[in-house]
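Fold it.
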Amino acid sequence: MKKAIALFLTLALLAGVFVLPVSAADSDTVDAVSLVRALGIMTGDAQGNLNLSNNVTRAEFCKMLVAASSYKDTVGGSSGYSLFRDVKSTHWAVEYIKVCVDNSWFIGYANGTFAPNNPITLEEAATVALRLLGYTSSDLAGSYPTAQLSKFNALGLHAGFSAQRGQYMTRADCAQLFANLMSASTKDGKTYAATLGYTLDSAGRVDYASLVTAGTKGPYTYKSGSILSSLPFSGSITVYRNGAASVLSAVTAYDVYYYNANLRTVWIYSNRVTGTYTAASPSAAAPTSVTVGGVSYQIETSGAAYQLSTQGTYVPGDKVTLLLGMNGAVADVCSPDQATGTYYGMVLSSAKESLTAADGTVSVVNTASVICTDGVTRSFETGSSTLSEKTLVRADYADSAVPVTVLTGASLSGTVSAGGTSLGTLTFASGAQILDTDSGGGYVRIYPSRLAGARLSESNVLYYHLDADGAIDNLILRNATGDTAAYGVVLSAVTNTSGMSVSGVYSCLIGSKAVQVSGSIVYSADKGPAAFYYEDGSLANIRSLNSVSLTSLGVSSAASAGGTYALSESCLYFIKRDDGYYTANRATVADTSKYTLSGWYDAFGSPAGGLLRVVVAVAK
């Protein structure tokens, strides 16, 4: 179970970063700007700036309208002729205006003009949006613009922005309008986004994850030169590298990258596995998965499949380095001496693998699965050594060899600065990699900012490494944050004592998943929110959380009568009723006029602990 949890957390990190260039306040909500950007309705200027406070002209609205319609991929260059006296064949928006006029979404003025540079008003935008949904004036009761605005409001198209009749629409207003439009019903009763072929979630909204996936290009392997030259955009770019916000200059040779032009976002991964290539499945002629270092990996690209096939560069028995993409699958392959590097981490498991050479000689190779400080699990060959779980190690990729050495303790103590830039007298290097662990083998990758203000003792610091400038670039901690535990709710606890034997049956919600645990052990936890710890594949402990009554709930913190509590980034929200707990989101339970709130935090001695892990709402 622990191995499954470890794999799940690793993949969740990779996938989570992939869909998180979203500035949404709640986990189940995507803000309008992110959505319309992903849809390509708004792309910004040459630098990627959306200039949300600017007014939108009629011509600009036409371009947005086409991008939000079934014509989004068909508009070409100039039409070659003038549409209106003020829209000549050379006008930048002539094709967009033509599509809108041909479909009767927009009309010109009686004097033969279109006024492309005039700001668009709310009532004009409302009228056009209704026409896009199939409504005509005969479907409306009343006169313009009262009838149009009434229907516009009834369809929920005015939600989330404040422009009123006679006022000009800003780019922020238009972003919200088009986001609303995607979830609105057409005259025929269909969800508009569905008519465009977009995937919808259970709430009838555009499924953002599938939208981002569809618009993302890659994987590509970076080797040298400027990565910017391979991107179809420049200027302001959002970059993630191995799960952390980064910059393009952080890319190194043989990193794997993806990009989304609409989001102007690049994801970079340096996840690599080096070892002996032992098997291909279902066949070496056409492999879809490969076994290296005793672990099987899915192959993501045809290029990697070819390199590992009987027609390619590598055959079973060769030492190879697999370059893994965002889903943990093989994006590319190279020789180990091309992808050198040093990694620090903790052994999760060890295994032995038999290798059969071409001459029939059989040898045994020891391998170790190591969670590294960058949060990536890698497999290393360890030669004749078998490493125990929880051992701290260093692995060096160099010259086709992967020597793994056991780390000796290197601890220190001190207070992390308020800005998360230093620990005691030592500064954190740019991109410092930190792993927090617990005694049961649990782990979580964290960032210096997570430790801000915490006082770390020598017992919290298992190992640290300094770069050439004397800054901390790798840090392995023990029980520093409390983030290694899983959190949830104990729904019921039944214990039995018969003679010398004891047993317990616990019904729990761990995260949002229902779990029943039973065995010859009794945990001290009461019913209610709790922390769950695993060791050697089994639940090792359940610890009750401390509670505090909350007076308000914000995005990153909550207030009580006695002070303020920080919210965990993975805080769980539940609505409690007589018949049990029901998962919710922050936005729903934050309404203190409807709910009485209690916050539940860990008080287990972690220097950077004490965060609210669970918030429970009870209807007033």
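The mean pLDDT is 87.
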